[in-house]
Write a structure and sequence with these properties.
Layout lengths: L8 H7 L9 H8 L3 H11 L2 H8 L6 H11 L1 E3 L14 E3 L2 E3 L3 E3 L12 H12 L3 E4 L6 H7 L5 E5 L5 H13 L4 E5 L9 H6 L2 E2 L5 H7 L3 H9 L13 E2 H8 L6 H10 L3 E7 L2 H10 L3 E4 L13 H12 L4 E4 L6 H9 L4 E4 L1 H33 L12 E3 L5 H11 L1
Protein name: Alpha-hydroxy acid oxidase
Pfam families: FMN_dh
Cofactor: FMN
């Protein structure tokens, strides 16, 4: 029989622990974010629909983006046992240098439209964390200003080949002079993808006021205050900034880009050279034969060709065929540190985060980017410990199974029907 007693007040108070009240609303909301999805929800509350949807959305039916995210969820981990994981080392080498973690910040366009601190927040947060930052040709901060924000860290530059080749050549020269150590030659954007959310929102650069945008801005006055009271948007390459995003991209990009352009830019660049937007094994092999330093398996976050290959699903075959000849970087669909660990296990040397970084930026500026990096770092370290590996090098294909919503026989049958 249970013996009961009247609790003593002192014993009750020992059980009652009150969390210190955080008066700073930004710190309070960022501390409440435990996942990238939490940051996304905060970002959606704080950002006008047009700017948020530009970040969150993808091309056409958004099938590529959905599949890319789903591919990471459709895995099974296989942990080892009885290994000492009291300390894990997340440091890795990529493109001739070190990174404290196996991910960097991907290039994103029009970033200051998401939140006014833009690339400065991303570059400075990356530098503080010891990971690389990549500036986009369509970034909204000058090359030299990014270098000033991250003077001792690793800066990479993503290049689009423009219709006016001299513009692209000038950017290459400026990035080299500023000490950027790697160039990402992008090959998946001969024209802009059909980003239907942007069209439906009437999203333009700069934002245009309409009855819809005014109504949407009423509960988000801080965004408009930041936008209207800070420096005018400065693009890394575009002199014309009026029009929809699709119009701007189509006016700047050149659909005639070819391997001769790749060779020309490669000769100009003194540092490491990567090709971004690789989506087939044959192209990966050809680029490895050409001796590029790295390839980036990417479908542009699902923002270009819808129904494009999922980079994470393409990864094992590419790693098997060319992993010994060229470094493999992967982006698209990463929302969790476990996604990064799975990518490394299946043969990637490094990963890039785009939307995850922008969600943090929209949720809280520089501090929000710091929170993104902190969340991913904690998830990477915890996943490695639970897999019972203490270094990146210990991760191997046996740690991960890619599950499939169709088995191989079903897929073969579907392909036969397609023929």
């Amino acid at each position: 029989m249970v013996r009961r007693q009247i609790p003593k007040p002192a014993e009750i108070f020992e059980l009652m622990k009150f969390k210190k009240l955080e008066l700073d609303p930004k710190k309070r909301r960022l501390e409440s974010a435990l996942t990238i999805e939490d940051l996304r929800r905060i970002a959606k509350r704080r950002t006008p629909a047009a700017a948020f949807d530009y970040t969150d959305g993808a091309a056409e039916g958004e099938i590529s983006m959905t599949r890319s995210v789903q591919a990471f969820e459709d895995i099974e981990f296989h942990p080892s046992i009885l290994n000492d994981v009291s300390h894990v080392d997340t440091t890795t080498q990529i493109l001739g240098g070190s990174s404290s973690m196996p991910f960097g910040i991907a290039p994103t366009g029009f970033t200051r439209l998401m939140q006014t601190e833009g690339e400065i927040a991303g570059a400075s947060a990356a530098g503080a964390a010891g990971i690389p930052f990549t500036l986009s040709t369509l970034g909204t901060t000058a090359i030299e200003d990014v270098k000033a924000a991250n003077p001792y860290g690793r800066n990479w530059f993503q290049l689009y080949v423009m219709r006016e080749r001299e513009v692209s050549y000038g950017l290459v020269e400026r990035a080299a002079e500023a000490g950027f150590d790697s160039l990402f030659f992008t090959v998946d954007t001969p024209v802009g993808g059909a980003r239907l959310r942007d069209s439906r929102n009437g999203f333009s650069i700069p934002p245009q006021l309409s009855a819809k945008t005014v109504l949407n801005a009423i509960p988000r006055p801080w965004w408009w205050w930041d936008f209207l009271t800070t420096a005018k948007l400065e693009f890394a390459s575009l002199s014309e900034t009026g029009g929809t995003v699709g119009e701007l991209i189509n006016s700047a990009m050149d659909p005639t880009i070819d391997f001769d352009d790749l060779a020309t830019i490669r000769k100009m660049w003194p540092g490491k050279f990567a090709v971004k937007g690789v989506q087939t094994l044959d192209d990966a092999k050809r680029l490895a034969d050409l001796g590029v330093d790295a390839i980036v398996l990417s479908n542009h976050g699902g923002r270009q060709l819808d129904r494009a290959p999922v980079p994470f699903e393409l990864l094992p075959s590419v790693a098997r065929e060319v992993g010994g000849d060229v470094e493999i970087i992967l982006d698209t669909g990463i929302r969790n540190g476990a996604d990064i660990v799975a990518s490394l296990a299946l043969g990637a040397d490094f990963t890039l985060i785009g939307r995850a970084y922008l969600y943090g930026l929209m949720a809280g500026g520089r501090e929000g980017v710091d929170r993104t990096i902190e969340i991913l770092r904690d998830q990477i370290e915890r996943t490695m410990k639970l897999l019972q590996v203490s270094t990146i090098a210990e991760l191997e294909p046996g740690h991960v199974t890619q599950l499939s919503r169709f088995n191989r026989e079903d897929r073969a049958s579907i392909e036969d029907l397609g023929r």
